[in-house]
Amino acid sequence: MNLSKNWLADFVDVSDVNVKDYCDRMTDTGSKVEGYEILGEDIENVVVARILSIAPHENSDHLQICQVDIGSKVEQIVTGAQNIFEGAIVPAAIPVAKLPGNIVIKPGKLRGVESNGMLCSMGELGLTEHDMPGKEPNGILILDESFGDKLGMDIKEALMLNDTVVEFEITSNRPDCLSVIGLARESAVSFDKPFAVKAPVVKCANDGDKISNYLSVSISAPDLCSRYVAGVVKNVKIAPSPLWLRMRLRASGVRPINNIVDITNYVMLEYGQPMHAFDYSCLNGSAIDVRRARDGECFKSLDDIDHTLDSSMLVIADKERAVALAGVMGGANSEIKDDTTTVVFESACFLGTSVRVTAKKNGMRTESSARFEKGLDPENCLGGLERACELVELLGAGEVVNEIIDVYPGKIEPTTLELDVDVINKFLGINVSEGEMKRILTALEFTVDGNKITAPTFRADIGCMNDVAEEIARIYGYNKIESSRIKGETTQGGYTRKQKFEIDVESAMCGMGINQIQTFSFISPKFYDKIRLPADSALRNSVVISNPLGEDTSVMRTTALPSALEVIARNCNFNNDNVKIFEIATVYIPTGADTLPNENKVICAAMYGNCDFYTVKGVCENILKLADIKNAVIRSADDNPSYHPGRYATISVDGKVIGVLGQIHPLTAKNYGVDLPVYACELDFEAIFALMNEAKLYTPLPKFPATTRDFSFVCDEALEFGTIKEEMAKAGGKLVDSIELFDIYRGHQVGENKKSVSIRVTLRASDRTLTVEEAEKVSSKILAGMEKNLGITLRA
Amino acid sequence: MKEKLNQIREEALSAIAADNADVEQIRIKYLGKKGELTSVLRGMGALSSEERPIVGQLANEVRAEVEAALAEKVQALKEQALEKQLKDEKIDVTLPSSPLAMGHLHPLTQMQRRIEEIFIGMGFSIAEGPEVEFDYYNFQALNIPENHPARDTQDTFYITENILLRSQTSPVQVRTMEKQKPPIRIISPGRVFRADAVDATHSPLFHQVEGLVVDKGITMGDLKGMLETFAKTLFGEDARLRFRPHHFPFTEPSAEVDVSCFVCGGKGCRVCKNEGWIEILGAGMVHPFVLENCGIDPNVYSGFAFGMGVERIAMKHYGIDDMRLLYENDVRFLEQF
Hints:
- Chain A has about 800 residues and is α+β, with helices and mostly antiparallel strands.
- Chain A has 6 domains: about 1-40 and about 165-190, 2-Layer Sandwich (Phenylalanyl-tRNA Synthetase, Chain B, domain 1); about 45-160, CATH 2.40.50.140; about 210-405, Phenylalanyl-tRNA Synthetase, Chain B, domain 3; about 415-480, Phenylalanyl-tRNA Synthetase, Chain B, domain 1 (2-Layer Sandwich), CATH 3.30.56.10; about 495-690, Bira Bifunctional Protein, Domain 2 (BirA Bifunctional Protein, domain 2, 2-Layer Sandwich); about 705-795, Ferrodoxin-fold anticodon-binding domain (Alpha-Beta Plaits, 2-Layer Sandwich), CATH 3.30.70.
- Helix content of chain A is about 25%, strand content about 30%.
- In chain A, the strands form 10 sheets. Chain A has a 7-stranded mixed β-sheet with strand order 27-30-31-35-34-33-32.
- Chain B is built from 12 helices and 9 strands.
- Chain B is of the alpha+beta class and about 325 residues long.
- The longest helix of chain B has about 40 residues, at about 50-90.
- The interface between A and B is large, with 88 and 87 residues.
């Protein structure tokens, strides 16, 4: 809402407050100021002048030499404009003068002839043909003869350009402040000044004619229209509005059009009451009905756009057709035109949600709909209409027909509350007297009667004690409320075990040199193709956003891998070496159309550069160690097309897979434009947390020495170390303390597709030093077991 | 022979003292089996029985003296050699390090954790809730019915008519109040979603931390006090807060809260757009409608709520000028934090 301070002065005098202090205080009391602009600030030393004589320029065909009366003296000004004539009243910039766009006018010579200034066009003064209707937009601005007694006057004063516009951001609960009167009331309370709105005075034609000769109004949808007030103006003369009105509209950011349309806009800005004007001659019949639109009904709005309506929308209709979309926009069929002679003014109150839905469905949000959708006060309709009629008479725009029509099915009751001074003081932590509270409320136009306070009808946002407390607090000053400490029961704060574990995992990952990333939760469904997810994979069933910004952010991810690979690809493109990244990402697994998805966390890491399969395996094992999960089994698998079939493994606990890891399939990597080996793992955070062992118990350190035995087995290439280790442990029994791989040899000495695996077994008993015989016995058991169960023997 | 021994002593000691002394050679020359001292001793038989002990003692003295000098020299040479070796081992300390791997927490996580820790210190717990949420929890229970204009300011992603991506973490407050009796002190950090196209200051996904306190006798002064403590802890002791009346459907009274610019201290600079203040928080006293909706009697209990955007604070704090950097995850960016 742009507020003209000149306009504001009609209702409250805050001229003793400088604009900066005004803005700060208004912000402090709840009307947030976004900024202000001093209009005409960029115009200096431009005055009203009369051209006394025009002489040709001897060195130029198009230049003319003018002698110009600027009140105090006569100046010679050379101009190239052709629309001037002797006796014309024009704006003249007298050096040193300033014009918008940082233009400075200095004395000079034009083709040898002295020119002490410049005659100005409307554009050079920052004006448009809407501000100056009927004037030549390209030539010098020729002012009316009425300016003849203003020679020498500053043009800003003469054209009423001097104004300050304050831009307010009004919150949606205060539609009453989307008006000059509303903001004047707030200004008056904020600065403790008197505030008054004069009731409009309408004389009317008093010629025996009355409105019932023209019009009747019915409301078929009283649930959507609480009040409809109409007035008729006859013998209308459509003309430009007077300068003062145009300049107020201009300052408010509204384009002047003609007197009748300008009056509707003026009243909307002043009263906050949206108005509409119909051309009476375009109405079919004399009956106006406020009804729901018919499904499929066609309507062309003022801006010449066709709309198809439905029965959720409210229209103003004549006998046959809709002439306005209620509260949103009028129809092209009844628009005010230059030859309009009879006008119907509408000042009505429509249900906010209905206007909001209608405007949204038709894609046209207007100044009117923006006000209605916040919920307006039906009590404001009559004042708005009367003000419009008053302006018609003031402007001489037509004759107001006697009487008005006022259909008011939805009369509202004002809210009455009890003022409990102690409760409010306690709630806010302040100590304001009853008298001061009542003063604030009265200034805000509450009716105060003992302990009963009644909110004005334009304050539909007042409904309970908190609302009243806010009124007191904002005028008293939020920043004057003294800060305090909560008094009450102590609460124990902190992270939950799971939150703590998540933080631990993050720290562990960082400790391993992996950077944390944050990626979007929504992805493109095409990303499932990029990671080569099988067509029948359950993971392709995602939660789908019905109104996404774009296809690339249209489904909630069921896997974190695509996000991580996107980041890998981006870093690869940036030529970053040795990249390791991780995310503890939420994935969203649908559970049904009407239920919320399961939101599970996964730990997803990806890396390239200085790493291999065993690096990512180490990452997984460290996380398992962090959770103290000892019985996890990592085994090769080849059923995940995202990964290299020969370099892929699953991590399971008791047969349940809790994670996967491996090299990303080269074809997957290629889909991301990466031709380096990329390694990744995806761990089920929820499962790992569920398996986490927090009850750690100390195992006494060994008191007796260990003895070691080394074995080198020759076996098939396909036999995994994990299998050998498992068998050795089984065969060796409980004296086996650890089994470590120390070498794998491949070469012609062991034969093709064979390998020699060298393993060190550490043997230990907790209660004694093992004898050589005992150690040998275990060795023999291991050898026997290996031969029997795996068919492998020691290397010769 | 005495002279001979004294001569040997002097010769040997001076040889040892020489800079380029070869200690092994000297040892062999004087103390070896065929060494000069040994041959002197061998010739002792020719001495008279009176002279023999005297010369013998002298010979032993000479031997001990030479041996000691030799040992000392060996030690000195060893030290010299080590010193030389260490000198030779000098490295260029300005060469790039070969670091032990260290990863970096994302700046958003770091900021979120800082905020969490401050509130945990004041007795808050961390509450979490679903990101895909029912309309009821995101809007209706928070006093934002269907077609309420406040929905305009939060362009929401919908899944179905009743299910959406939460546009704020406030639904967690509602869920908490449904389950837990006062006193309640929680913050709910997490991801929220709004249909804003990506640019330098907007993202369809960002992080919020909201807080909720419900207890008997909670006042607006308490809200101010708590947020001031928070601001001073996060931004420094000099931080000041400014409260401006505002409107949120779920709080009444409501406020927008500015912190004095933590770059210029309030004088005005690029970061605060010359205003001296940076808007960081929305806050207010919990609306009685919301309390009632969650089964808490507003005549007995009162409370306050507040919310802030983690991105905004992190960006201002770290001087990050483009929000996209946060989600691009360029490691050169991540490793700066």
